[in-house]
Structure formats: C-alpha cells, structure tokens
From TrEMBL:
<dbReference type="InterPro" id="IPR006311">
    <property type="entry name" value="TAT_signal"/>
</dbReference>
<keyword id="KW-0732">Signal</keyword>
<keyword id="KW-0326">Glycosidase</keyword>
<dbReference type="Pfam" id="PF04616">
    <property type="entry name" value="Glyco_hydro_43"/>
</dbReference>
<dbReference type="InterPro" id="IPR051795">
    <property type="entry name" value="Glycosyl_Hydrlase_43"/>
</dbReference>
<feature type="domain" description="Beta-xylosidase C-terminal Concanavalin A-like">
    <location>
        <begin position="338"/>
        <end position="532"/>
    </location>
</feature>
<feature type="signal peptide">
    <location>
        <begin position="1"/>
        <end position="29"/>
    </location>
</feature>
<dbReference type="InterPro" id="IPR023296">
    <property type="entry name" value="Glyco_hydro_beta-prop_sf"/>
</dbReference>
<keyword id="KW-0378">Hydrolase</keyword>
<protein>
    <submittedName>
        <fullName>Glycoside hydrolase 43 family protein</fullName>
    </submittedName>
</protein>
<dbReference type="InterPro" id="IPR041542">
    <property type="entry name" value="GH43_C2"/>
</dbReference>
<dbReference type="InterPro" id="IPR013320">
    <property type="entry name" value="ConA-like_dom_sf"/>
</dbReference>
<dbReference type="InterPro" id="IPR006710">
    <property type="entry name" value="Glyco_hydro_43"/>
</dbReference>
<dbReference type="Pfam" id="PF17851">
    <property type="entry name" value="GH43_C2"/>
</dbReference>
<dbReference type="GO" id="GO:0016787">
    <property type="term" value="F:hydrolase activity"/>
</dbReference>
<comment type="similarity">
    <text>Belongs to the glycosyl hydrolase 43 family.</text>
</comment>
C-alpha cells in the first residue's frame, strides 16, 4: 500500500459527499464531543455492530477507509472513514448504481445475493486517486475510481475476467496487481493506466489439509509480498514471497479462535492495516446471525522473520483492547433521526436493487411514489433500507399516507429472505394498519410466500407512526416486534413476533426497510416525515 496525506480536512469530509448527514443529524455533526468521548482508553468489539462483511481497510496518511460487501443493495460498496480505527462513519459508495444488467433494476428478474461481493479498495499515491475493484455475477469485473473517497466515483474499466474475492496492491514502483481466486490463487498485473490486464499467473494451490482459501488481500510489507486469505468460516492464513509471482510460503494466522461476541463465530477474512506510528491491526468479521457479519478489530505483532500474529486475550480474540495509539476522533452516530431535508440521501441509506429515480424525492421528507405494480415485496422497487444496529435496536417512521391509492401497500419491514412488516393497506378508499409476515424465498431466492396478514387496526388520524424493534444478538429464536401509534408517543403492539432467520445462505443480515408499492396501478404516494433508529 502507498500512504500519503489527504489534502482534505476532516471537517470537509464530515459534511460533504453523498449527503453524509441529513436533517437533524446535520446539527449533531456540529456539536462538540464531550471530554470523555475524546479520552477513550480502550475499545470494545465489535467496533461496528452493523452488517459489514468482507471488509477491506486502507490508510492514506492519517485517514483510514473501509469498504464492504453489499450484494444487491444500491448504491454499492460503501466507503467508511475513520481517524482512529474505532470510530467509523459513512462517507459514500464506490459503485453509484448497479448498472450491470436490467435485473439489478428488478426488470425481468432479480439479483438477490449476487452483485457486490468481497471487493477491494486501494489508493494510488502517484495520482492521489482511489480505486475500487470487484467481480460481478462471476464472469466480469469492474473498476471504479475517485480522487475523493466520498465521491463522485466513476467507472474506470471493465475486465472480461472474474477477479473472485479480489485484493489490489499498488507496488512501490507503482505497478498495480490483483490477487484473487478460491483454492487456486492467481495474481494479475494491470496496465499502467489500470484499464487492462497485461499478465496473469497461477501462484498457489490451497493444501488439501487446509482446504479452500479465498478472500485475498494483497500487501507489500518490508520488501515481502503477502497474500492474506481466509478459510471460511473458521480460519485465516497468510502467504509470503519475495515476488508477487511466488513461490509462496504459507503460515496459519488463526484457526478456531474464540471470538469476541457471545454466541458469534470465529473472526476471519478482512484485512491488515498499519497506523502512522507503525502499529498494525487486523479487522475481520464475525458471523453473528441473525444480525449478519460484523467487524471486529485486534492488534497485530510481527515475528522476527516477518509473520503476523493476532494479539489475543486469554487465547481468544479480545472483547476489549487498549485504544490504538491514535488521537480519538469521535464521529456522528451511525444511527439517529433523518428528516430527509437535504437534496440527497445520507450515505447510510441503500435501496433494495436500483431505484426508479423518477419515483422518489427528498427535501421535504422522503416522498415515495409507487414504482411497481406487484403483490410481491421482493419485486417492489424503491424499497429503502437501513442496517439494524446491534445487539438490538428500534426503527420508528412517521408516515403521511394521504396520497395512497386503492391497492397500495406501504410501511416498515424487516427485510431478508423471510420478511415481515407493519404498515398500511388501502382498499375501497379506506386505509387500515396491518401487520404481515410470511414473505419468504426459497434456496434459489425466488419468492415462495407473498405474505399473510396477521392483524389489522383502524387508522383514525392523518399521520401514523410505525415501529419495529429487532433483537439481532447471535442465536436462534431472536425476534422482531411490531407496533404503531397515532400520536407519536403511545405505541400499541400489533400482530405476532417475527422470528429472525439465522441461515448464512442469504449472507446479508436483516434490514429495516421503508416501502411503498401498488398492487393495482401506479399513482399513489406516501411521505416519510421522519425515520429514527435508536439502540
């Protein structure tokens, strides 16, 4: 990796790019942080209790940046920023729109559980430019680039090869490499402009006694080349060579190491990063279903012969560690209230597939016009999602239904391959409150259940508050509960509890999701006046 100082001040990064903060949250960003917040002496894992899988993190000068998998959500490949490795904030996305096929628009099909898989983020100091690379649908790869990590990002290149679980390296001579593969590991050298491949070689085969290795991250450290690889879901290994083309030695980094989250899995995948002072850290993720895969941080030391070692606490990945030897930089919370008063959405928001941009707007609340005629939530466009904060959190939306049309369905969902919602059904000129579950997918992520209404209530006022509380601690039988209010203060439970799925096959954890779709004809709309997440 090549490090250099970013020319932008932290304040500029905080307030610009893709609507980093919106509505009431903007005021929070300008408030001074307390002395206690600025004097952190330790940190607790997970450092972010939200679903961020397959992370890669880099340092540019004194700034750290991280990306993660987003599959079918759009925009894709979030960019997070930190100055201390512990406090992170959204600043943008590397892939502004998933324009890889019509199915990413829910046109003729869907792309659930494909899209943005384990991808790579790097910085090229010679250009002061950021690069993102990822394979799409297992037969093509795309590169995006930006001079500002907050964006705008633009497409730079398309490659006719699937760089599966790619890891990019900008060498000290400015040559760009890509490490990738599963079990059979390869290195590709890119052209000087990063737009074509000029060399490709097989460099390593996973030993049979270890099994498949993937999730490559590629580094040059003290003159040696390292390929950091995961054995999912319980191991991490590293390859070392004096050349990017090998031959490589292999060393175990961890195997079956107890993790920092009770009931969760073994930290793995992710990547390594150094601080300006020369300390090293490993950010991996923990399988923590039903919540998803959440990032955990641990310090790294190096042996005399150049191999990394995770610093453990009583033989385990620590639940707490001393704070990095960096000045703490508290940032605005990743949860809170959004009143959608800005012209763009805050970077924390992601749509289920690409939205129809003619059917939504912000500035005076979030206006969602119906964009799809369907009786299937999974085929409805313009469903806007927010990650669930662990270990448990509550989402509340204030919603104006006055412009709903007959046949419309709108509300707040817990969205995954088994979904449920509380919301509104408009029929024969009457709008009623409804709790519905049974929206389900099969193993091929095709809809097999379109929902069963469990309870309903009369809507008496012109505004309704809808609420979902979700417990995403690792383990079976965690539940989401639904309620509503017509005054914003007194909430009435409705329907049945929804048991959250723990199957890793869907990869992503559940999300809070606001939706509005028609079952008869387009033309209706809702306005979300306020969306609040509290923990």
């Amino acid at each position: 990796m090549a490090w250099m100082e970013t020319p932008k001040s932290r304040r500029r990064i905080l307030i610009r790019g893709a609507g980093v903060l919106a509505g009431a949250a903007a005021a929070t960003a300008l408030n001074p942080f307390t002395a206690a917040e600025a004097q952190q002496t330790s940190f607790t894992n997970p450092v972010i209790w939200q679903d961020f899988a397959d992370v890669e993190l880099i340092r540019v000068g004194s700034d750290f940046y991280m990306t993660a998998s987003t599959m079918h959500y759009s925009p894709g490949a979030p960019v997070l920023h930190s100055r201390d490795l512990v406090n992170w904030e959204f600043i943008g996305h590397s892939v502004p729109r998933l324009d890889f096929s019509d199915w990413y628009d829910l046109n003729g099909g869907h792309r659930y559980i494909v899209g943005i898989w384990a991808s790579s983020l790097t910085h090229r100091a010679s250009e002061n430019r950021f690069y993102w690379l990822g394979q799409i649908d297992f037969h093509r790869s795309f590169m995006y680039t930006a001079t500002d990590p907050a964006g705008p990002w633009t497409r730079h290149a398309e490659f006719p090869r699937s760089y599966y679980d790619a890891g990019m390296l900008v060498d000290t001579d400015d040559t760009m490499y890509v490490a990738y593969g599963n079990t059979e590991l390869y290195v590709a050298q890119l052209s000087a402009d990063g737009k074509t491949e000029v060399r490709n070689e097989h460099v390593f085969s996973s030993p049979s006694e270890i099994g498949g290795l993937e999730g490559a991250r590629f580094y040059k450290i003290n003159g040696s080349y390292y390929m950091f690889l995961t054995k999912p879901p319980n191991g991490q290994y590293i390859l070392k060579s004096s050349s990017p083309w090998g031959p490589y030695e292999i060393r175990e980094v961890l195997l079956d190491m107890p993790g920092p989250i009770p009931g969760g899995g073994i930290p793995h995948q992710g990547g390594l990063v150094s601080t300006p002072g020369g300390d090293w850290y490993y950010m991996g993720f923990v399988d923590a279903y039903p919540g998803g895969r959440v990032p955990a941080l641990a310090p790294i030391t190096w042996t005399a012969d150049g191999w990394p070692q995770v610093q453990t606490v009583n033989g385990a990945w620590g639940q707490t560690y001393p704070f990095p030897n960096l000045t703490p930089h508290p940032v605005p919370s990743m949860i809170g209230t959004d009143t959608f008063t800005t012209a763009t959405l805050a970077a924390k928001w992601e749509w289920n597939h690409n939205p129809d941009d003619t059917k939504w707007s912000t500035g005076n609340g979030l206006r969602l016009q119906t964009a799809t005629v369907t009786d299937d939530l999974y085929k409805a466009r313009n469903t806007l999602t927010h990650r669930i904060q662990g270990p448990s959190s509550t989402a509340t939306v204030e919603l104006d239904p006055a412009q709903m049309a007959d046949g419309d369905r709108a509300g707040l969902a817990v969205l995954r391959n088994d979904s449920a919602w509380i919301g509104l059904r408009r029929e024969n000129g009457v709008t009623r409150i409804s709790m519905t579950d049974g929206h389900t997918m099969d193993s091929g992520f095709n809809t097999v259940g379109k929902g069963i209404e469990r309870a309903s209530a009369e809507l008496c006022g012109s505004t309704v508050w809808l609420r979902v509380t979700a417990d995403i601690r690792p383990g079976a039988e965690r539940q989401a509960h639904f309620s509503y209010s017509e005054d914003g203060s007194n909430f009435i439970p409705l329907g049945t509890a929804h048991t959250l799925g723990t199957s890793p096959a869907f990869f992503m954890g559940p999300r809070f999701a606001v939706f509005n779709h028609a079952t008869r004809s387009l033309g209706g709309a809702i306005t979300v006046k306020r969306f609040t997440v509290t923990a």
